[in-house]
Amino acid sequence: MRTAEIAIIGGGPAGLAAALAAHEAGAKEILILERDAKLGGILQQCIHNGFGLHYFKQELTGPEYAARFEERLLGTSITVLTETMVLELSKDRVVTAVSAKEGFLQIKAKAIILAMGCRERSRGALLIPGTRPAGVYTAGLAQRLVNMEGLLPGKEIVILGSGDIGLIMARRMTWEGAKVKMVCELMPYSSGLTRNIVQCLEDNDIPLYFNTTVVEIHGRERLAGVTIAKVDEQTKKPIPGTEKFVPCDTLLLSVGLIPENELSLQAGIEMDPVTGGARVSQERQTSLPGVFACGNVLHVHDLVDNVSEEAEIAGAAAARFAKGEEGQQGREIPVRAEGGVRYVVPQRVLAREGEELTFYFRVGATHRPAQLCVLSGDEQLLSRRKAIMTPGEMESVTVRLAKLGDEIILRVENA
């Protein structure tokens, strides 16, 4: 049994930023557990630029962004164990793991930070009928094959889903010489950033079809094509008579990300059914005292810059908890999403009047223009108008807490 002030599960952008923030807050024994052979998480395979514009005020590639944090680890007391798979997290903050170098090990930590990231939704979750040929990949796997392994998955591509990884891979495959025939999106809007739609699809003349999905996969040894169809905007069921066969040798799936919360569920942490992550306070503490969560394991982010900022909140709070310092005191108030808001993080606050607090949220449909209201009891804490809000882009709002009622409500409506 080893001991640590803080054990961090995951060495991606969230875990790295949390570790450095905890170190700066005075924690001495910090241990990062990472199952991959290298730190950086998904950033290792994201060789395109566009990272760091907010956090570093520079445009960086994914590996460059991760390297900035790795360089800051040098000279600190932070210990890193790579090729280490965490198997279990107990309610009394004991982490059980296996490591290629250390073997079987257990770590008793004063505080734990969950930074496991997320995984892609696969074909099995979509229940697309048809055969099981080679040539069906998630977009993230295809990205790894192209950017890290030097392998081209195919030459004629159809992409299902307009998530950011799918949009970026449409451009990447085109630049590598493949023909991306189309991107199909089940919803009437894209789940990716507007800048990626413009730079990846429009700049490369790749068509994007809304209210369209893949209804059948064809081929035996290798994918021969897919059948697509229009869907009813309300029921999302295919519309008979709209089917069309599209010959292709590769289908990429970019149909959503799922926070990796098996360990959280195992420990009995209270979860949010919408985000798929833990319900947390503004310090990113979960329902299990001393266990904090940040990054994509908490809720799926658009920008890694926001992941780093959120992880710093969790890291500093975990350091205070590990040192036995009292966390923020105040009356606990639930935070509720209402109207067009799908979810909000944090889901509860320990409120002190006069404090400024940032809420992150997503809307469930496009609002153009949008009216955001933050309410508590009979008081309107904030009202703001924005030209457009879309489900594909996470929003944030900073509110000064005053005259608080029994709950805080975030509501978005068409202005």
User: Going by CATH, what is the homologous superfamily of the largest domain?
Assistant: FAD/NAD(P)-binding domain
> How much of the residues is beta strand, in percent?
35-45%
Total helical elements: 8
Q: Count the strands?
A: 27
Biggest beta sheet summary: 7 strands, mixed
CATH class of the largest domain: Alpha Beta
Helix content: 10-25%
Q: Per the principal axes of the C-alpha atoms, what is the gross shape?
A: globular
CATH architecture of the largest domain, by name, is 3-Layer(bba) Sandwich
Integer-rounded radius of gyration: 22 Å
What structural class should be given to the helix and strand makeup?
Answer: alpha/beta
Q: Kindly give the count of domains.
A: 3
Distance between the amino and carboxyl termini: 58 Å
Which spans of ≥5 residues are poorly predicted at pLDDT below 50?
none
According to CATH, the fold-level topology of the largest domain is: FAD/NAD(P)-binding domain
Provide mean pLDDT, rounded: 93
